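Researcher: Go.
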Amino acid sequence: GMKEVRDILEKAGRLSERGSRMVLATVVHLEGSSYRRPGARMLVSESGEITGAISGGCLEGDALEKAMLAMSKQQARIVTCDTMDDEDPFGVGLGCNGILQVLMEPILDDDTLNPIRLLQFATRGRRPSVLATLFSLERKKGPQPGTCLVLDGDGGWTGHPPDGAPEEALMADMQECMQSAQSRFSRYETESGTMEAFIEHLPPAVSLVIVGAGNDAIPLVEMAQRIGWETIVVDGRSTHARPDRFHGGCRVLVSKPEEVLEQIHSDERTAFVLMTHNYAYDKALLKALLPRKTGYLGMLGPGKKWERMLEEFRREGLHFTSDSLDRLHAPVGLDIGAEGPEEIAVSIVAGICAAMTDRPGTPLRNLKGAIHQKVPPHMMNGKPA
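Model: Structure:
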């Protein structure tokens, strides 16, 4: 996920300042069960520090030795980690039984297009991007092309396909991934044998705009930031909208409702939650937000509040499309019996997650089949499903 990528980039920056060598480890293939699908990443420093989520525990033994070997040889390679063995440190983090193929890429400072730099390009600004990582399971012992190419939402390319890669097919698959917003595995037959690619769609982080700077906004900001969302708090009251009241990194604005949208960039990954406890402020902002395309729109308070607003809009001669009205979650959040600001924050964040992924938010035990398909069909044979 995006939070994992950002954590890795932050850690890489600190390691680089210290002059530490490092390796980026990416799961490119798995057999057996695993709750982390291919694409999970982890950064390993030369002192054995781990950032990311392939391994939940301290990485040691065989897998760490293999990372160190890739680091010392300064050459990307694929290593096999068998989590069937309880002693294997990868097993701790994966909570699973399976055989993982992990691409280990040393990060070379003098390479302006090393994997960390490409990840930086891929996560700049508020636009989606597609990242390609190439490898060969057939020639596991040989050098690996690795993370090599980024396509951004504006159609720009950074990096270059490695020698011998089927450039046209790879770029076409990346463009298809951008359009479908679905990560995929592709397999190519080249003169030197089979080459595989993990083509990953990276959406921009969710941006949560909390309208209302009361005490109940504080746990919501903290929870959103913990899962890697960007946060903005807006209120008309300068007594409440003060940066010192909120977690670092939260942008805080004092604004009249009619001026809020002039100061905030909103897109399909932006969620607005109206919770000012001020009827007129919420109504004025809702009037501006309903015609807009946003990722999520929710309002705190009873359903009757929204019904009253809707009736007032009608009397004022304002009519919104049924699509616009359907997008409003009022009351905001999922029904989890939440009481108190912290539990309400859980309910709101869960509701936004469900809406952004188009899921109903039902108990997982009621689902038929796997939570995530263990290995999607197109990952088994390298062709799109």
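Model: Residues 250 and 361 are 27 Å apart (CA to CA).
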